Amino acid sequence: MTFDRSVKIAPSILSADFANFGQEIQAVEAQGADWIHVDVMDGHFVPNITFGPATCKAIRPHVKTVMDVHLMIAPVDPYIEAFAEAGADILTAHLEAGPHIHRTLQAIRGAGCKAGLALNPGTGVEDIAYLLDMVDLVCVMTVNPGFGGQAFIDLSAKVRRLRQMIGDRPIHIEIDGGVTPATAPLMVAAGADVLVAGSAVFKGGSVANPAPYGENIAAIRAAVA
Ligand code: DX5
Ligand code: ZN
């Protein structure tokens, strides 16, 4: 993975057909996805359950781009090795998931993954000032994590401040939640370069009819161009 700040669209398979992840990933990559965003939920840190490392491992051979794994779990540390072995390129943990995020980020890089740090909508960016040299990505949640299809929370000022704090460091700013052609331009203008989108990418399409995936991705790209 080489670093650049061009805009990348990362469809979340939370909005894909759970019985058919392999083909869904192939379809959405063929239709222009830059990364594949994988939402892991534990029913404890967030009020919903998705899947764990075994599913990540099973889908890994289908991902030809970047496997971006968003851990909405607590605790994180006991599972880092398993997600690294499952083939995550990026492993993102939440600042709010425990008292020792510094240790968690060290362990993620130690396991050979890029380290991501996610922030709930209510968390301030000043809290991560001493973590910036340990991360490859900051994920700014623009919904409260747990479900796809929620309404976007405009955190433009937070993203702008984060972009200033990052300066020249090679750190991606990822936006997750409620990204559409209407909301994406606000976030890119504020400094984001990775746009996660679940419902806005998968709506109207299927493995049998993947063209809408491409149209949906193109609509987001056109909006931010
Ligand atoms: C929310 C997840 C998101 C979600 C985004 O907890 O982390 O990745 O799938 O879905 P949309 O784009 O539908 O808001
Ligand atoms: Zn996510």
From TrEMBL:
<comment type="similarity">
    <text>Belongs to the ribulose-phosphate 3-epimerase family.</text>
</comment>
<dbReference type="InterPro" id="IPR013785">
    <property type="entry name" value="Aldolase_TIM"/>
</dbReference>
<feature type="active site" description="Proton acceptor">
    <location>
        <position position="39"/>
    </location>
</feature>
<protein>
    <recommendedName>
        <fullName>Ribulose-phosphate 3-epimerase</fullName>
        <ecNumber>5.1.3.1</ecNumber>
    </recommendedName>
</protein>
<feature type="active site" description="Proton donor">
    <location>
        <position position="176"/>
    </location>
</feature>
<feature type="binding site">
    <location>
        <begin position="176"/>
        <end position="178"/>
    </location>
    <ligand>
        <name>substrate</name>
    </ligand>
</feature>
<feature type="binding site">
    <location>
        <begin position="146"/>
        <end position="149"/>
    </location>
    <ligand>
        <name>substrate</name>
    </ligand>
</feature>
<dbReference type="InterPro" id="IPR011060">
    <property type="entry name" value="RibuloseP-bd_barrel"/>
</dbReference>
<keyword id="KW-0413">Isomerase</keyword>
<comment type="function">
    <text>Catalyzes the reversible epimerization of D-ribulose 5-phosphate to D-xylulose 5-phosphate.</text>
</comment>
<feature type="binding site">
    <location>
        <position position="39"/>
    </location>
    <ligand>
        <name>a divalent metal cation</name>
    </ligand>
</feature>
<feature type="binding site">
    <location>
        <position position="37"/>
    </location>
    <ligand>
        <name>a divalent metal cation</name>
    </ligand>
</feature>
<keyword id="KW-0119">Carbohydrate metabolism</keyword>
<feature type="binding site">
    <location>
        <position position="176"/>
    </location>
    <ligand>
        <name>a divalent metal cation</name>
    </ligand>
</feature>
<comment type="pathway">
    <text>Carbohydrate degradation.</text>
</comment>
<feature type="binding site">
    <location>
        <position position="70"/>
    </location>
    <ligand>
        <name>a divalent metal cation</name>
    </ligand>
</feature>
<keyword id="KW-0479">Metal-binding</keyword>
<dbReference type="Pfam" id="PF00834">
    <property type="entry name" value="Ribul_P_3_epim"/>
</dbReference>
<feature type="binding site">
    <location>
        <begin position="198"/>
        <end position="199"/>
    </location>
    <ligand>
        <name>substrate</name>
    </ligand>
</feature>
<dbReference type="InterPro" id="IPR026019">
    <property type="entry name" value="Ribul_P_3_epim"/>
</dbReference>
<dbReference type="GO" id="GO:0004750">
    <property type="term" value="F:D-ribulose-phosphate 3-epimerase activity"/>
</dbReference>
<dbReference type="InterPro" id="IPR000056">
    <property type="entry name" value="Ribul_P_3_epim-like"/>
</dbReference>
<feature type="binding site">
    <location>
        <position position="12"/>
    </location>
    <ligand>
        <name>substrate</name>
    </ligand>
</feature>
<feature type="binding site">
    <location>
        <position position="70"/>
    </location>
    <ligand>
        <name>substrate</name>
    </ligand>
</feature>
